[in-house]
Amino acid sequence: MLKSGWGRGAIVLAMLLSSLMYGALAPSSVAADRGFVAGAARATMPIYASVVIPKDGATKGYATKVVTISQDGLLSVVNLDTIDHTVTSVAIDSEGDPLFDVIVPPGATVSVPAASLLAPGTYDFFCTFHPNMTGELIVEGDSGGVTPALPKFEQPLLIPPVRTGDHIRLPMKKTLQRVLPHGRRTPLWTYGNSWPGPTIRRPAGHATDVTFTNELPRSAGSMSVHFHGDHHAARFDGQPGSFLVRRGRPRTYHFPLTYAGKPEPSSFFWYHDHRMDVTARNNWQGLQGMFIVDDARPRDLRLPEGRHDIPLLVGDRSFTEKNRFTNPFRNGPTMIHTKAGMAFTGPKAPPNDATVGTRVLVNGRYAPFLRVSATRYRLRLLNASSFSAYNFALSDGRPFVQIGTGNGLLRQPVVRQNILLGPAQRADVIVDFHREKGQNVVLSSIPRTDGSETGTGSRSAALMEFRVRSDAPDRSRIPASLPGPGPIEVPNKVSKTWTFGLSGDAETGTFWSINGRSFDMDRVDFRVPLGSTQRWRIRNVAPVSHYVHIHAEQWHTVTRAGEKPPPWERGLEDTWRLDPGEEVVVAAKFTDYTGPFMIHCHMLDHEDHGMMARFLVTDRHHKAAGTAARAAEHVHPSGHEHTVAATTSAGQRFVTRSAGALGAQLALAGVLVLGLRLRRRSVPQPA
């Protein structure tokens, strides 16, 4: 070390000059928005530091939230928790990848050599599995090293083709598509040769048939398609193990687009794969598309339409050097069978089964742009990720005006600076680009801002760029009120509580559970009388957030955490965020269809690893007297289809199997089995 005053003064002077030179080259105000602030040079001995992850880190965060290293030092990460975590840079390189990104298994110490290669400055980092965990890395040293890059927004936004016919045919095929701006095209599994698949757009109340043909590689297996958010018969609901779209064969799904005999409200649904055990894999490969239902009323509201009505499907993926999707499922957990049902062992067993990508895509492209006019636009936001949540915001500080959920319009518009959406959640918003001509407005995801101390956070990423380039006439407006759903009569008593948790242990296997059990396709977890209004309580006792989706009906949110729900949750819903310890009460009237339907977490690895249950809608309380004869479709829990005919004569019921040539003995056996089943249904079921 230099001991003279002259030597120390020279070092200080060199540091000041270096700082001024680097500051002139690196505009920190811009880079700070991307998780990086330029720093001063520093001449000193190597500085080493460790990021420590404590027990219960998913809720407590990093124990060391600010760490400092020198360019010739080393950053390490020590995981004292019982689950996997990552330390991932918010800032990205010129290819769109994080500047550093390491997975740290429980009990492990992992070094981060990429951190020592960075230019001096401050770098934000987070855990991709639990984005509420955030910290800062300060790098000191000479100028030089790897610096962050901003997304270039080099490719136009893909607008999926629109299909409007009453019978739509969509092949499931392996397709090459431009996803990244450079290099090879990416092989995908698609509906109709694109990801997202064609946007189906149909008028409410007009029956729609969609025929899917499975032309995927043999290794993909059979598929099942779920029309998410819609109200339809059980056999068209995307049953995970029955009514499958087998390879080389077509299957037609029928969607009346009605609810209790009336046209459905204007909605933003979507369709995606729902196959047992591989839902996450099949969605990751690209089997997703959007479905818009229009009714006559919104035209009178003068909402943006045509080219000003843009559906956006947002999802994350990781890539190989050849621009292929990585395969995060290759070395997945091992399934075993226990008394509670299926359980899993191995490094990726629950709760270490989160599938996240390094890049966030919009409509199947990385960092796209869209040229727009200085007018209002209607954006339909869909989070189609398997695990990640996004907190949407605009770079110019302008708000969103939310006019609806995925299941219909609200009764009043809600002004929101940012909108947090977890997997499967949607928001229908209006963005006003008036007086923005010549500006570029970036749609981003920012860290969660609602103050939750336990909830899983949101990704930080620049998603896409709106380039406002021209003026144009604009007849649209934001109405003061909207034709949202009216209230329903909600029973005072909760008829069913669904508790979402983490069960099992490392020795016997772990699983995501509902009411302490993992999913069993042949088990009925609750019976619902057709025509009844149900009040259900949903609770989360797990250490991470869950996004709970209920099939069959369109639901009203009664309370959140014992209070009136926020304004944006006062429309119809099908998916709710539940942070650890949180409780939501929901209600719906069961109408039109009997048969089995599902409730599950829409974090798709959680669904695949046990967090799904089945409820059976029955017609045992349906009163046929005084009404015309009617037939109600029914699907046995095992997946075998029956038709239960109800007539005005009480007690006259018979079963007709789809394959009617089974013979008189099987027919008699079917009647006896039905009688026993109906007798069992008369016994009250536990809540």
Molecular structure report:
The protein has 687 residues and is mainly beta. It has seven helices and 49 strands. It has a seven-stranded mixed beta sheet with strand order 26-25-22-28-33-30-31, with no helix packed on it. Strand 23 and strand 24 form a beta hairpin. The chain is globular, with a radius of gyration of 27 Å. Mean pLDDT is 86; it is low at 1-33 and 622-687.
General shape: globular
Q: Could you tell me how far the N terminus lies from the C terminus, measured between alpha carbons in angstroms?
A: 74 Å
Q: Total number of β-strand segments?
A: 49
Extract low-pLDDT stretches.
Answer: 1-33, 622-687
Helix content: under 10%
Structural class: mainly beta
Over all CA atoms, what is the radius of gyration? 27 Å
Provide the β-strand percentage band: 35-45%
Rounded mean pLDDT is: 86
Order of strands, main sheet, comes to 26-25-22-28-33-30-31
Instruction: Give the biggest beta sheet.
Output: 7 strands, mixed
- Number of DSSP helices? 7
Label this structure with key terms:
687 residues, mainly beta, 7-stranded mixed β-sheet, 7 helices, 49 strands, 40% strand, disordered N terminus, disordered C terminus
